[in-house]
Amino acid sequence: MVPFDRFTVVLDACTLFPAFVRDVLLTLAHHEFFSPKWSPRIRDEWTRNLLSRLSARHPEAKAQQRVQRVAAAMDTAFPDANTGLCPLDVPDRIL
After folding, report:
1. Which residue range forms the structural domain that includes residue 12?
2. pTM for the structure as a whole
């Protein structure tokens, strides 16, 4: 039998922004199917977009508090996930 090693998976903002996808992926990571990673840039992108979405429905301060709670819970659950490294800026489209 081949020993199971945890894969390292970079979770991009598009996977961390939707609550359902984020919850499923982080649940799998919690059960040690993989080791999640993200950069400060990824964290900034998904939290900024979530704040924008929540601010449309709730007061700004309440939306900010909810986003901070989610991000803090992720930091607590996966303290080594934030790499602290920002990847090189690569344009979305090369002309």
Report:
1. 7-77
2. 0.79
Distance, in Å, from the CA atom of 47 to the CA atom of 59, rounded to the nearest integer, reads 16
Answer yes or no: is 87 within a domain.
Answer: no
User: Which of 48, 41, 37, 45 minimizes the C-alpha distance to 75?
Assistant: 37
Going by pLDDT thresholds of 50, 70 and 90, the confidence category of residue 2 is very low
Q: How many domains does the chain have?
A: 1
Q: Is residue 46 part of a domain?
A: yes
pLDDT tens track for 29-42: 999 999 999 999 99
d(CA 95, CA 87): 21
Give per-residue pLDDT as tens, 54-74. Answer: 988 888 889 899 999 999 999
- Taking a C-beta distance cutoff of 8 angstroms, is the pair 35, 29 a contact? yes
Which uninterrupted H or E stretch holds 61?
helix 60-77
Instruction: Classify residue 51: in a domain, yes or no.
Output: yes
Tell me the Cα Rg of the chain.
15
